[in-house]
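Morning. Coffee machine broken again, so started the prediction first thing and wrote up yesterday's gels while waiting. Chain of 497 residues, entered below exactly as on the submission form.
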Amino acid sequence: MQVNLKKSLYLGLAALTFASVAGATTASATTANAASHRAVKTTKKHAKKATKKTTKKAAKAVTFMVTKNLDQSLVYKSTGKNAMFTKPGGVKNNKLKASKNDMRSKANSNSANDLFMAYQEVRTSKGVHYYKVVSFDKKVRGYVYVKGVQKIDNPTTTAAKPANTVGYVTTNNVYNLPSGYKFGADSSVKDFSGINFSADKFTVNDAVTVYGGDTYYNVTDQNNSLINGWVKASDFTNNMPANVMNSQNAAQNAANAVHVTYVSNANLGSTVMTKSLNPANLQNNGTYNAKDVVNSVNDSLKGTGYNLINSSNITDKGSYLNDSSVINKGENLTVVVTPQNNRQAVKYTVSQLQNPNSFNQSLAAIGNNQLSPVNMSQNTYDSLFKGNDNDTFNYNNLKSQMLSYGQPMYQLTSNDAGHRYTYTFDANLTETNAANPKLFNANNQLISNATFADVNSQSMSNGIDGLNLIYTVKDNQTGQQQTTPVNGSGIVTLFNK
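Came back before lunch.
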């Protein structure tokens, strides 16, 4: 019994000891949990304080308000010192509108488009001043620090009026104010309800030069003083503009014209063509003499292939005219014309230019027997080289089919055994008034209605007649090259039918 009791006591003590240790562990955990809870509570407290502090700071964000509306007639220019933004500096969601480099470029510009109108002054909650501005071309608008632009006191200066203050305005853009005088001036075009004042004379009243250097004139229409305003000096001229003069001339010519119907003598009921003509020498009483009418009609027939006419070929109100007849302006005339049927070949001669500086004194004829024949059909020859005296000579057609690169007459050769000389067509020298005065005018432009008779009537002082075709010639033995013309009469010997 004692043994068992001791054993039980021992076990009880052991259990008690274990329980004591467990109790100690539990107490430690409880203490740790309490400390952790206090730490979390402290963190939340600090976080709450931080949130309150941030909220307090946000409430003090930068704002701005308009402190002054500015005079919009004033003109400002960029200083290049500051950029432009969508809002004043420091304001939330602000964006760059024009960089400092962009503003510097505008500061150096001479264009009125790069000037500014400042229409508001604003102050931020931090006390900083800004201008709200817009460029004259309306492409840039935003806020810039007050030192980013400066006022121009005199955007225009007095300019000299033209020596002759009476002239014509060549534009419909008449402004209330010169462009550059103030914002919006370049778009203040006056509305004259479609009035055509291009033929009116204007008086220059004043002149100014705007920023950038353009000069404007203040003008008034002499026919209607209500038409007035500012125009660029370049849109004012003392001489009547060509288009106005041409229009007036056309209207005058139409009023003074005689109206001609051309009919064929083979069938008097068939109309060949109709034209309105303005003969020379209109009399003060509004009439023309028959001679001037005949000359005008014959000028109109040039190059048509019809024979020239005389007064007896003209009828006025059914009656044939004579040389003493008088015709009223505005009359309707009938002219009987006869087609020509006398096709002849155009003349030209082959010749060598001894002195390249003088066509008339230095041409020496070369016989056709010295050239190798050119191959072309009879039909080709007839179509290119033959025509009636009053037919238009079609030089361009001849050039494209015979004288252009690769065509039969572009290069000619001498007919000796070795073909010592090669001739190459030179259009630059041929197509001149010096070489062909009846085919090319003084400006070396082709005369579009030059006739076969005109070309055949060409004559040099040394007796060489007809069309002058100029070639460069190469001596195939020596390799030397020189300039020669090839003029041609007797071309028939230069081709094989």
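The two ends are 166 Å apart (CA to CA). Going to sketch it on the whiteboard this afternoon.
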